[in-house]
Amino acid sequence: MNDDDGVFRALADPTRRHLLDRLFERDGRTLTELESELEMSRFGVMKHLRVLEDAGLVVTRRQGREKLHYLNPVPIRLIHDRWIDKYTEHRVSALAELKTTLEESA
Amino acid sequence: MTTMTAQATQVYQVFIKATPEAIWDAITKPEFTERYFYGARIENTPELHVTLGPDQSDWGQTPTYEFEPPRRLVHGWRSAYNPELAAEDESRVTWEIEQQDGGYSLLTVTHDRLEGAPKTAESVSGTGWMMVLSGLKTLLETGEPLAG
To answer: Which is the most buried residue in A35, A101, B6, B91, by most CB within 10 A?
Structure first.
């Protein structure tokens, strides 16, 4: 829950990133559809989807007898806000300071 | 990155360290929504979902279909901030709030019935709902709107 570790762990596997890319192209897909695009057993795909679901990157919805998988990009956004913004902001302000210092000494 | 065809059903989910009641207030009262919803003042009554733009301009209203504080809100959606999008068919937004352990709540937003509103679907996917939900989380957890 609200756990960056789970998101990073989920993203650390190429098959899971591939699944996210497939869902990014078109989501609301069933396990059978996702499985047909991967060289992997149904059980293997299920296991990977489970890790993505636990990390909050995939949300499932039941529709009749089918379970549909949706991409939830919010945790990636939160990591972006938490990690990327912070460091790019720092770098920009460091450059701004450098510029001020250089211009003052010129 | 491959381009995405925006989906007719979109699901977004976020854990927020707040009570369901606090989240309910934050999504139904204009004094909260203006701090994270692109400056829009949104008021949800049991009958209507009414939106004013940041400049107090009328962004129209859509019906409220379900109003069960603090668990479930369903209302119509029209992207009235853009005339081209506003002309498309009305779609539907469902907010579900579930209490979790440790003072957290799970908020799920489902935007569906977008079949007749492809441009709206494109507009709200990507950063659209994500910015709203990460802003809402920040506001409720820190009391501050997102910078920038």
So the answer is: B91
